[in-house]
Amino acid sequence: MKKNLVLKLLTIIISIIVLLILLIPRPLYADDGGTEVYKAKLYSVEIRHSIWENNAGFDWYRADLEEGTFGYLTGTKIKIFGRIIRDNTEFLTSEECECKRCNRP
Ligand SMILES: [Zn+2]
C-alpha cells in the first residue's frame, strides 16, 4: 500500500518535470534587426523583425515599393511539432513598421 503511493507520487513528479522540459521556452535574440525566438522542445514562437531588402527574388517582394528599398520583415511565426501553424510575416519599410524600435522619438 505504502509502496504504491510512493510509486504514484514519483510518476507524477517525473511527468511534471518532463512536461516542463518540453514546454518551457528558451529565449534567443538574433542579431538581424531585433528578431526574438522563444524555442521549446514542442513549439517555437518567432517574433520577427529582421532587416530586409525589397528584392523580386524573395517571397515578401512588394511591387508597390522600389526594388532595393530597405525595411524589415516583421510578423509572428508559430510552429508546433515543427509544423508552421501561423506565419504573418510581411515586409514593411521602417516608416510603416509600428514597433518601438522603428518609432524612436
Ligand atoms: Zn520595426
Mean pLDDT: 93
Q: How many E-type strands?
A: 6
Beta content comes to 35-45%
Largest beta-sheet details: 6 strands, antiparallel
Summary?
The protein has 105 residues and is an alpha+beta fold.
Structure characterization notes:
- The chain has 105 residues and is of the alpha+beta class.
- The chain has a domain at 26-92.
- The protein has one helix at 2-23; strands at residues 26-29, 36-39, 43-53, 70-80, 83-87, 90-92.
- Strands 1, 2, 3, 4, 5 and 6 form a 6-stranded antiparallel sheet that branches.
- Strand 1 and strand 2 form a beta hairpin.
- The longest helix has 22 residues, at 2-23.
- It is elongated.
- Bound molecules: zinc ion (ZN).
- Zinc ion (ZN) binds at residues 49, 72, 74, 97, 99, 101-102.
Q: Which features does this protein show?
A:
single chain, 105 residues, alpha+beta, 36% strand
Spell out the blueprint of helices and strands.
Layout (H helix, E strand, L loop, with lengths): L1 H22 L2 E4 L6 E4 L3 E11 L16 E11 L2 E5 L2 E3 L13
Antiparallel strand pairs: 1-2, 2-3, 3-4, 4-5, 4-6
The chain binds zinc ion (ZN).
The site of zinc ion has 7 residues, from strand 4.
